[in-house]
Every structure is written in structure tokens, then in C-alpha cells.
Amino acid sequence: xxKVIDIISQMRSLDGRFPKQEQKVADFILSQLExxxxxxxxxxxxxxxxxxxxxxxxxQALGCEGFxxxxxxxxxxxxxxxxxxxxxxxxxxxxDQLVAQVFGALxxxxxxxxxxxxxxxxxxxxxxxxxxxxxxxxxxxxxSANVAREGANRFFRLGIPAEAHSDGYFQxxxxxxxxxxxxxxAISASGQPTELLDSVAIARxxxxxxxxxxxxxxxxxxxxxxxIEIDIPEDQDIYKPSASRLVFIAIVDVLxxxxxxxxxxxxxxxxxRIRTSLISLSDDVGPKPIGD
Length: 292
Description:
This protein has helices at 7-14, 20-31, 33-36, 41-48, 52-61, 67-81, 95-113, 119-130, 142-156, 168-175, 194-205, 219-223, 243-262, 264-277; strands at residues 134-139, 162-165, 182-188, 209-215, 226-230. By secondary structure, it is of the alpha/beta class. A five-stranded parallel sheet has the order 2-1-3-4-5, sandwiched between helices. The N and C termini lie far apart (51 Å).
């Protein structure tokens, strides 16, 4: 049987299809997920009104080796999932309140991070990026991968070949082709992904420089030539945008603006070319975002 990753979903998918006695166990555990994750096998058997052997058969029916394996998986799943298993949340979803909440969280996050940005690391990163022959932005997972794409989007406009990749295998292969003059820009809110750590190590081995935008003191921060380190807790409101993603994008914008000012004539020429290439798509020739 395949390894069970999400034991809660597994119980829900089989709910109503267990034998009568095992269904009693399922009914109790699904209704009391957090308390059940702390209970012994005999406690669950007693509360559900079944035998200890029935509890063990229930665990095996879910794909677990036994109760101990089930309890570990349940505790892990509950720890990760509990904030998502409640009701629909607060009812204060009027548009004006939502605007205040989301914008307020963004402003608070930016203000929290601003004093953490070391001028030395920022200046070093800008200088390195301004001289780069090629920049490879790398991130894994939804948030960091999206920031990597935004980084490539910002920097190619300045006349620096830039790309973004989120596939770990491709990152490693690409890193092995880099050399002096190339830059790997690794992005991670946790600073732990093996893919990024390996890619940074490989790129440095062949002479490329590396920049990390990541959590303070993380393994990724320690492995890069230049580390832009921030420590920002995620908002407990699960419906709000990820604080680290929004802050990371703002930092990328800071670096891009700094690089543009390091090479103003080149930056202006490439931005002019891009804007000119879009004239045929719009009659509006006034100031507007590059690429809309």
C-alpha cells in the first residue's frame, strides 16, 4: 500500500465505508482530531466503545503499520492542518475591512523588514548584479518561485540576460554551466531547500557568484557569497497574502532600481526599446508601465 501522507484526508475518503465497529473509531477521531492525536490506543477504544484490536484494525485499514504509526501521522497532520479545519473564519469580510487588513499587513511587514536590511549587503548585491553577464533566479515552491519569476522580469528590462527556474533538477544542471561573470540569485523563505543549497554550491564551484534572499541565519544564507537576510513571521490569518512573498518582491524592486541607477544610460536605452516595441499594440504613447 502506498505511504499515507495526509491521514485526515484518508479518513475522510473512507468515512462511511469502514466496518461497523471501525466506523465508530472513525466517527470519534474525525470529530475530535486534536484530542485524539494525544490519546492512547486504549483511551480511544474506551471512548469509541470498541476493543483495542478494533482500533488497530482501523489504523491498518488507513494504510498505517499500526496504532503507533497512525498516531505519529495524525499528530503531524493535525499540527499542520488545524488552522485550516475550523469554520469559515470571521465574518468581517466587507470590502473596506478587507482592504484595511491586507494593505495594513503589507505596510506592517515592510516596516518590520526595513531596518533589517543591511546597507552593506544591499550595496554589494546591487554592485554584483549591475556587473553580471547573466542572472539565474532560482526558487522552489509557490511563493519563492513566483518571486524568482518577478526577478527575471525586472532585470531583463535593464539589458541583463535574466531567467527564472523552479525545477530542482534543472537548477542543478544550469548551475553547472555557469562561470565567472554569472550570478545565481537564490530565493527561499526558509533557506532550507536542498535544491537551492546544491545549486548554489555547484555554481560557486565553477566560479559563478551567488546571492541569497532568505531567512536570517539559514543554511542558504550561510552558503551564498552575499546574503540578504530577513526575519519575518507569517500572519496567522490564513486568508491573507504571504508576508514573505510580498516583502521579497519589494526587495527585488529595490535591487533592480539600484542596478538601473548604476548603469543609467544602458537601462534607459533598453527600457526605451521595450516601450517602443509595444507602440503598435496601443495608441497611448504617454507614460505607462513597461509591458503594461
